[in-house]
Design goal:
By secondary structure, this protein is α/β, with parallel strands linked by helices. It is built from five helices and seven strands. The chain starts with 12 loop residues before the first strand and ends with a helix.
Length: about 130
């Protein structure tokens, strides 16, 4: 698979925060194949450290992160690094989570997300079409 025109993935960094190792590996593989620089972590604390060391262009985070959740990360970014594009993933449709994500200007995706939907969502978000 090749990088999407206009998205300039080689200069875009995606932070993927996923507590399930297999899903983290799957997302990382998909995004790297598209040419994105990917930082992958499994915990909320590692995500916070990663955000402090450098701002990614895109944050993809799952809801369940131990005692915290992905909405906490998105809220942190919204305040301290509002330029970061956020995508929240969850294994079940949940209208409250979807509404919360949207209220924080984040995209909500069901997981496991189809490869094409994931790459199209990231590319569209980077192109300004959140």
């Amino acid at each position: 698979m090749s990088a999407r025109p206009g998205a300039q993935p080689s200069s875009s960094t995606v932070l993927v925060v996923e507590s399930d190792r297999a899903e983290l590996s799957r997302l990382t593989t998909i995004l790297r194949a598209e040419g994105y620089n990917v930082v992958d972590v499994m915990t909320f604390r590692d995500a916070v450290r990663s955000l402090q060391s450098g701002a990614p262009n895109v944050l993809i985070t799952t809801v369940r992160l131990g005692p915290y959740n992905g909405l906490h990360l998105i809220a942190r970014c919204q305040v301290s690094q509002p330029q970061i594009i956020s995508i929240l993933t969850h294994a079940e449709e949940d209208s409250w989570l979807r509404d919360e994500a949207v209220s924080k200007e984040a995209t909500f995706l069901l997981k496991p997300c189809a490869e094409e939907l994931l790459t199209r969502t990231v590319a569209r978000s980077l192109a300004g079409g959140r």
